[in-house]
Amino acid sequence: MSFQHTELAGVSWNNDATMINMKFFRVFLALLGGTHVLCAQPSASPTVKSTGGSSLASVVAGSKPLNKPDFDDIAPRNVTAIVGQTAELNCFVKHPGDRVVSWIRKRDLHILTSSIYAYTGDERFSVKHPETSDEWTLKIDYVQQRDAGVYECQVNTEPKLNLAFVLRVEESAPVPATTTPNAIHRTFNSAAQAKILGPEEVYVKKGSTISLTCTVNVQSTPPSSVSWHHGGAVVDFDSPRGGVSLETEKTESGTTSRLLVTQARLTDSGNYTCIPSNANPASVMVHVLNGEHPAAMQHGGSCGVTPTILLATFTLVISNLLR
């Protein structure tokens, strides 16, 4: 059905008892039946009357449909990053309204960020969202090989909107399998040295928190990454065990990396190594004890007793008993 605009003599429209000023409305003549159609603005009342006839009409004043959230697929969804550098996955959401944008790691369905907040113990993950912008960028500092995989940008509509991104992580330079800690030490200037605060051996009670603080005295060029190893494996902040987190702080005096392991278990014992990208690593031996030797326990992550001191104390006690 087609409509034509017309000015009709002897026909007026009333909004309840008030005549409508036709300057602000459009009247159309339907070619079939000569029906008078009033196109009203959204603020009009629902009932109007035409004086050219006896009929009443109901007008539903519609509003412009709201724009629904959608992805602006302008950024690459296959991203490659180098170990130790920062990886960014750029998600752009148009017309989000009051909807929440989240980032999900697909391999374990872990919610990494929701809105502007991070929901992971791994502080390398954050979200970048300039105010009033459409950008919701997942930022991964000091990216590691284990970070490779699929990530989803999600909007909590019904049904849910999601956009998948693939992150590939490459080594900047292959490290020979025969590389030893001594070879690593020879790679850097002797002045570039990491240091783990406290004694070389730390004792903690089972169920308490292991707190290890590593400082790097390279001020001119801060390390692009600081990783932690337990034994021969990289510390996994997202293992099923849980309770493992990392805090990294860069200041004018250097870089500080703090490893926290809550609810210490006997299996958490072993050698821990702090490895900056541009400095010699540092190591500490951690002993998780099942309640014995309370004097040897770590207090606040800054004190401990070495086996030498324990042996000397034990020898002194025995010699006193034999007198």
Automatic annotation (TrEMBL):
GO biological process: synapse organization
Keyword Cytoplasm recorded: no
Signal peptide: 1-40
UniProt cross-references to SUPFAM superfamilies, sorted A to Z: Immunoglobulin (SSF48726)
Residues in Ig-like domain copies: 69-164, 181-285
UniProt superkingdom: Eukaryota
PANTHER family tied to this protein: DEFECTIVE PROBOSCIS EXTENSION RESPONSE 7, ISOFORM F (PTHR23279:SF6), DEFECTIVE PROBOSCIS EXTENSION RESPONSE DPR -RELATED (PTHR23279)
Annotated GO CC locations: neuron projection membrane
Protein name, per record: Basement membrane-specific heparan sulfate proteoglycan core protein isoform X2
Keywords: Signal
Protein source organism: Bombus terrestris (Buff-tailed bumblebee)
UniProt-listed InterPro entries: Ig-like_dom (IPR007110), Ig-like_dom_sf (IPR036179), Ig-like_fold (IPR013783), Ig_sub (IPR003599), Ig_sub2 (IPR003598), Ig_V-set (IPR013106), Zig-8 (IPR037448)
Pfam family, one: V-set
